[in-house]
Amino acid sequence: MHWHKLPFDIVHTLLNFTEITDLVSLCSTCRPLRAHIKNESIWRRVCSAYGVRDTTYFDGNSAYAVYTRLLHPYGPLLGLWANDSPFYGKILEFNLFLGNQDEQGGIIGEVFTSPPAEPPDTDNPAPPTYTRVLKISFEPGGSLSGSEAAEDDDKPGTVHVFCDHGKRNPPEPTATPSRHRSSLVRLSETTLAKFLQFYRRKVHLPEFPPHISPWYDSSRSLPRIPELAETTTHHRDVIKLYPAARLPAVWTGPTLVTKPAAISVRCTHPECRCAPLHATVLPFANLDERAPRYYPLKSGLPPRAPHPDEDAWAVASLDGIWYGSYGPNGTECIYLAPGADAASVEATKITGDVHVPRGCVSWIVHCPTTEMQRATLLAHWSAVRTDEFIPRRLLGGQGTIAGRGFTDMAIVDIVAGIISEDQIDVFWTEIHEFRTYKRYKGRQPPP
Fold first, then answer.
1. In sequence order, what are the residues at sequence separation of 6 or more whose Cβ sits closer than 8 angstroms to the Cβ of residue 306?
2. Residues 6 or more apart from 83 whose CB is under 8 A from it?
């Protein structure tokens, strides 16, 4: 029997067990089946997979419109993204907002922000706060400037991308909201990397991401929007003629490392203040005027990690995003990845500072393998710790320090104590100070 000859309710029931891509393909084969493609109950089912069970606050659009125009193309954005802005980097998180009586629903992007450290709390990391920078929704309003404006920009049911910043979580009374139309683009692969040029000296900033990256989430896809070719323009020849008096300066040039496709936020509004939210202003000249490229950042939170006092504890339980103190540079985010030997862990900077930039390995520590190594670590820890607390798990290794501009890089000894399943204290011997790192466990509910 042909599908289109079955009773409507039976066809509809069968379609409820069909993947959405197969459903669209099937319903496109003939006119009788095509009548099912806009059946609201089908699209409410696929919307509910994103947590959308009521489309009231999506500008009055149907479940079919909400899924096909918002969730399907932009749903892959949901999660964390890390950008390649020189030295500092940024983390952007997209979440689905279901809307309320005060604001329409959509996909909201917020950047992680952390206040600079102030004595005496330079060794105490601050959890990130979140500043809204982007919203993707059906809401009308605003317009793109010049040739980017389309004739059907404000046609009902059209999804718009807004620069929508100034709202903080937690709220900040002095923040001034700003909102205007912007664009989010998908960019192709690139071989361009960033350099810092001094007089007769060049510093290659870490590739971001490198060829093999522990933090890059290759399991996630990019938004389903047309891909634009990344520019191949670079500054390798320009920097040779750049005035010495204006150095140091950041510039781009090709390398042998191909960076994967990415997303980027582009805003042409003349009064927009969003640029510093995506890329911290550098203390150097910057020849690269491109908006930063964002890459998917692994953001899955692990199940409950065992306490380091438990026999079940292993370095693999440290995997994930952590935030730690870097003295006067404030709080920065790192990604901890266990080594292939299951006895070491590597901390890569996702955000950085003007000394040791994003993408650099901040430190690597190893579990002791002999009783002599354990005794040495214990003696070192006991000699420098003032509170007499001795963790069961002590690891030794090396950390990276550098001068301003990632110059004079040096590898120094460190000792890491696993204080709890969510806290690591690291003693840096060169500066004779402890730095605390805490596990990022996602957004915490308001008190």
1. 312, 313, 314, 317, 421
2. 89, 90, 91, 92, 278, 279, 292, 293, 294, 295
- Strand, coil or helix: 71: helix
Question: In this structure, how many other beta carbons lie within 10 angstroms of the beta carbon of residue 406?
Answer: 22
In angstroms, the CA 257 to CA 365 distance is 27
Question: How many Å apart are CA 26 and CA 3, to the nearest integer?
Answer: 10
CA atoms within 13 A on the CB side of 364: 11
288-307: pLDDT as tens digits: 999 999 999 998 676 778 89
Residues pairing with 428 in the sheet? 414, 433
Q: Is the peptide bond before 120 cis (omega within 30 degrees of 0)?
A: yes
* Closest listed residue to residue 296, CA positions, set 152, 186, 178: 186
| CA 348-317-211 angle, 5° bins | 35
Name the DSSP class of 3. Answer: G
Question: Would you state the structure tokens that stand for residue 165, as one six-digit string?
Answer: 């910043």
Q: Is the pLDDT of residue 437 over 50?
A: yes
pLDDT band at 2 (very low <50, low <70, confident <90, very high): low
401, 360 contact by CB (below 8 A)? no
Rounded to a whole number of angstroms, the distance between the first and last alpha carbons of the chain is: 59
